[in-house]
What we know:
The chain is built from five helices and five strands, in the order αβαββββααα. By secondary structure, it is α+β, with helices and mostly antiparallel strands. Strands 3-4-5 form a three-stranded antiparallel sheet. The chain has a two-stranded parallel ribbon with strand order 1-2.
Amino acid sequence: MSFKDRSDAGRRLAAAVMGYKDQQPVVLALPRGGVPVAAEVAAALNAPLDLILVRKIGVPFQPELAMGAVVDGGAPLVVRNEDVISLAGIEESGFQRGPRPRTRRNRTAA
């Protein structure tokens, strides 16, 4: 399925999830690309829209390829992509000491 743009994708997604409208949903968006999609869904469902701030942990030799992510918040959560870690040959020690994106919490400590 292809879309004209992210707003078009959001309108189509909204049509698919209209059954949730009476359940008081909250729509969560991932910046940047997910916001236009989520905004259309939130508007159609008359639901609040909030953001989840996530920072990618890239493979050292291919930084655009995510081997994990850090979800920002009071207690940042690290999510790992085990398939990418394995295929890239990243050892546990390499993941642990690999570059970590700066979250709100560790920005002030730097």
